[in-house]
Design brief:
Blueprint lengths: L2 H7 L15 H12 L6 H10 L1 H4 L12 H8 L4 H15 L7 E8 L14 E7 L4 E7 L6 H11 L6 E4 L6 H9 L3 E6 L4 H16 L7 E10 L2 E11 L16 E11 L2 E11 L5 H10 L2 H12 L13 H17 L8 H10 L1 H16 L8 H14 L13
Parallel strand pairs: 1-4, 4-5
Antiparallel strand pairs: 1-2, 2-3, 5-9, 6-7, 7-8, 8-9
């Protein structure tokens, strides 16, 4: 490792006392990130990966005392500070997603179902994540307090993110006055599902659509769009009607900020001979453009399909019984690091599961994870950057995610 790397991590605060250290914190962090990139699901898997791949690991860090026991890995990582991990996570993502493309950011929560502890009376870990639909990345996360819900976690997450110019999508849980205020103040747009939790507003919006349709939209700014999608043995027809808001008619809008339009989505799904229909409503700060509104609403499902489903089915998060200290939250962050890197690695066209499997077998393919996309994103095109230097640069950026302090990324030497 060069001096930049040593300087970058020399002041890390280790939660252990000096006389109890046999393994450096940086060694444990790098080992854990690398293991999860190969599909490791728990502390024992991380130890096993380290023992098999010790020679490969020693190309980048000394591991003077070999690989720590899984109990040591669990004890150290479970004591890291979650707030510092969150800050480093956001800094890291900003580095690898620097383009200024206007983005749809889907915000949604997920519970790691088996992370509860009856003995310690701890609820299961529930994290609210922000998913960049354009980049295919988790760009931020916030833990939901055990005595609260997503309503308090969402504003806290939005305050940490640079969302100016983007469009935030939320399910009905996020349909709150304080949340629309936060988004508006940060100069972003929003599309938020409207359901019974805002009963008065929900009923007024439904009645407003009924009134406008009865008048054949004669006196109201509006736009329509229809999309037909096929696949997996079904046909889905989605009709979108977007109306300008008349706040003299919708009286429940008092106290809400930024709402310019309301949206009605009528979905008709055909599966064989069976036909099902559903009508959904949304509030939005977007101007009237039904095609754009329909696309934004459709993109919100990426947080379920590309993030939550992958965490459960590929990384087996719901089956994980890690629950000591902050261990569940740290492991959740490790999984999201791996998901971000694997989704944005284009060296091989394959599923997430296949890429993890190849990374467990092929040292070179695993090394590529650390530098290919990061190299491109950071535009490190100086001729002095050899393969080894780029790999080292990637390791610097990745491990900064997990370091329990605020880290300022040093220039590469």
């Amino acid at each position: 490792m060069n001096n930049t790397f040593i300087t970058h991590f020399s002041d890390i605060e280790d939660p252990r006392i000096d006389r109890c250290k046999r393994h450096q914190l940086i060694d444990i962090l790098f080992l854990s990130v690398s293991a999860v990139l190969t599909g490791a699901e728990g502390w024992e898997d991380i130890e096993q990966f380290g023992r098999i791949k010790l020679d490969w690991l020693r190309k980048y860090l000394p591991f003077e005392n070999g690989i720590p026991k899984h109990d040591t890995i669990a004890r150290v990582l479970s004591r890291l500070e979650p707030q510092a991990i969150q800050a480093c996570f956001i800094k890291w993502v900003r580095d690898i997603a620097q383009d200024s493309q206007v983005d749809v950011i889907a915000v949604d929560g997920k519970t790691a179902r088996r992370s509860f502890s009856t003995k310690e009376r701890n609820n299961a870990l529930h994290m609210v994540s922000a998913w960049s639909c354009a980049h295919g990345l988790v760009i931020g996360q916030q833990k939901v307090d055990g005595k609260s819900n997503e309503i308090t976690a969402i504003p806290a997450l939005l305050e940490l993110l640079d969302i100016e110019g983007g469009c935030i999508t939320l399910d009905a849980m996020g349909c709150q006055k304080e949340i629309t205020k936060t988004i508006t103040v940060k100069k972003a747009d929003f599309v938020i599902a409207l359901k019974g939790n805002q009963g008065g507003l929900h009923e007024e919006v439904k009645a407003y659509f009924h009134k406008v349709l009865r008048e054949k939209c004669a006196h109201t700014g509006h736009d329509t769009d229809e999309q037909i999608n096929t696949g997996h043995g079904r046909i889905e027809v989605r009709k979108c009607l977007q109306l300008e808001v008349d706040d003299t008619w919708i009286t429940k809008l008092k106290g809400w900020q930024g709402i310019k339009t309301v949206i009605e989505i009528q979905s008709e799904r055909h599966v064989g001979e069976k036909v099902t229909t559903e009508t959904r409503y949304y509030i939005s700060s977007l101007a009237v453009n039904a095609e754009r509104a329909s696309q934004v609403i459709r993109q919100h499902w990426a947080v379920e399909n590309s993030l939550h489903w992958t965490l459960d089915m590929t990384f087996r998060e719901d089956e994980s019984r890690i629950r000591r200290g902050n261990g569940a939250q740290v492991m959740n962050a490790l999984r999201k690091v791996a998901l971000n890197i694997v989704r944005n690695n284009t060296t091989r066209k394959a599923s997430m599961k296949q890429k993890l499997k190849q990374a467990s077998l092929d040292d070179q393919f695993r090394a590529n994870y650390y530098w290919v996309r990061i190299y491109n994103a950071l535009a490190l095109d100086h001729p002095a950057f050899s393969h080894t230097n780029m790999l080292e640069a990637g390791i610097n950026v990745l491990i900064s995610l997990m370091v329990p302090v605020f880290i300022i990324k040093c220039p590469l030497s």
